[in-house]
Design goal:
alpha/beta
């Protein structure tokens, strides 16, 4: 590893842990953002989700505005806004407003999934069959509302027109990699829940990247789950919350983010264990030494320009400590 390692950033879904309220979850994440800023992380991104019992990040731009007021320098963004849920004009207005409040600190990461089930997607009042609701078309419309050209049209984003809010495409397959390469946009890959297409997506993106004025070079963030602790045993114990989270997702069971357990074998079948461990094979759990070794391997394998870490840790103090361990391991 070089003397100047690549940046680390934070993804947060604002988890609602067992025994915590939504208000406490928001406060816990605000404190994490402050700790991440102090520890040297570059970005703090919040991911839009809806109708999930253990995730409080539905009103993503509202949360970012609050965290912006409680921090000073860390970049803030969406990881991501699920564009099919929204009119592009509204998202341009929201993120240009954030950029106006916190100049030079805002990123707009976009995803094409609804971030929920289809019934809830319909409740969000987005008709997937309506004209102009295909993701590439919606992206084109959103980028138009950020353009200088749009400032002279009758319908424009105020604020938004002429504001170069950095726009990222998020993905867990090669689809977003292809679109990001074609549009000359940076890409963040979701290896924290869908690592299967990671290498193919990154390779395609770099090989086919079309430079843009704002982003002349390709740029890749790889996101992984991570747990740092003072001992390996503690890290693996804390990580059982993550294992339970993905086990419940695979089984369609709703629950608050659970406390860690001593023995996962009491909760899952052998086939469940194989499935969850395969899905989470890029997760990094351990001491500073293990974190450093695994992060270095990830960067060498992927050529990532930046790594983003997500954590499923029940105890908010241990979650903050985990990020401090990761920062000390890397910087």
């Amino acid at each position: 590893m070089s003397n100047q390692p690549i940046p680390l950033s934070v993804l947060d879904l604002i988890p609602i842990g067992e025994g915590f309220s939504v208000a406490q979850a928001l406060e816990n994440s605000t404190r994490l953002a402050q700790a991440a800023e102090k520890a040297g992380f570059k970005r703090y991104w919040v991911a839009e989700h809806h109708n999930l019992k253990d995730i409080a990040s539905a009103a993503t731009s509202v949360i970012l505005s609050h965290i912006g007021a409680k921090t000073e320098s860390i970049r803030l963004g969406s990881g991501g806004i699920m564009l099919p849920n929204h009119a592009p004009l509204v998202i341009a207005e929201q993120f240009a407003t954030l950029e106006s409040l916190y100049p030079g600190r805002i990123d707009l990461g976009l995803g094409r999934a609804p971030g929920t089930d289809m019934e809830t997607a319909r409740a969000l009042r987005r008709d997937p069959s309506a004209k102009g609701t295909e993701f590439p078309e919606m992206l084109e419309e959103l980028l138009y509302f950020f353009s200088q050209e749009s400032a002279h049209k009758r319908i424009k984003a105020v604020p938004g027109a002429g504001m170069k809010v950095p726009t990222w495409l998020l993905g867990s397959s090669t689809f977003s990699a292809q679109l990001a390469a074609r549009k000359g946009l940076p890409m963040a890959f979701a290896a924290h829940f869908a690592p299967d297409a990671m290498n193919a997506a990154i390779e395609y993106y770099r090989a086919n990247y079309q430079p843009s004025e704002q982003f002349p070079e390709p740029y890749v963030i790889v996101c992984v789950n991570a747990v740092g602790a003072d001992t390996q045993e503690e890290a693996e114990y804390l990580a059982t919350t993550e294992l339970q989270k993905f086990l419940s997702l695979n089984q369609g069971v709703e629950q608050y983010l659970p406390k860690p357990v001593e023995n996962m074998n009491a909760l899952w079948s052998p086939s469940d264990a194989v499935r969850v461990k395969h899905q989470l094979r890029e997760s990094i759990w351990g001491t500073e030494e293990v974190i450093r070794e695994r992060l270095t391997s990830l960067v060498e394998r992927t050529g990532a320009d930046e790594v983003m870490v997500n954590s499923w840790i029940h105890d908010p103090e241990k979650r903050i400590h985990s990020h401090n361990v990761i920062a000390k391991a890397w910087f």
